[in-house]
Design goal:
Strand content: under 5%
Number of strands: 0
Number of helices: 2
Shape: elongated
Helix content: 10-25%
Distance between the termini: 45 Å
Radius of gyration: 16 Å
Structural class: little secondary structure
Order of helices and strands: HH
């Protein structure tokens, strides 16, 4: 995504981005939106309806997960 568009999201000033990205000044430079494809997690729970929601991550953070074993 171009730097100029990333800045429109409101999180650019949080300084969570890697230093090399913070040094970019050309608004047209393409920058990654996440560290690696392995850091994209999609979770689905429940069903369709008025109580559905999306919970986005905060800027360039790393995904963390833990396996939960069923007790049944």
């Amino acid at each position: 995504m171009p730097l100029g568009r990333l800045k429109l999201g409101g999180m650019w000033g949080m300084h969570d981005w890697p230093l090399w990205m913070q040094k970019v000044t050309d608004e047209e430079t393409m920058l990654p939106r996440f560290p690696a494809p392995e850091d994209i997690y999609v979770m689905v729970a429940g069903g369709s309806g008025k109580h559905s929601c999306v919970v986005p991550n905060c800027t360039f953070s790393r995904a963390v997960s833990k396996v939960v074993e069923s007790t049944r």
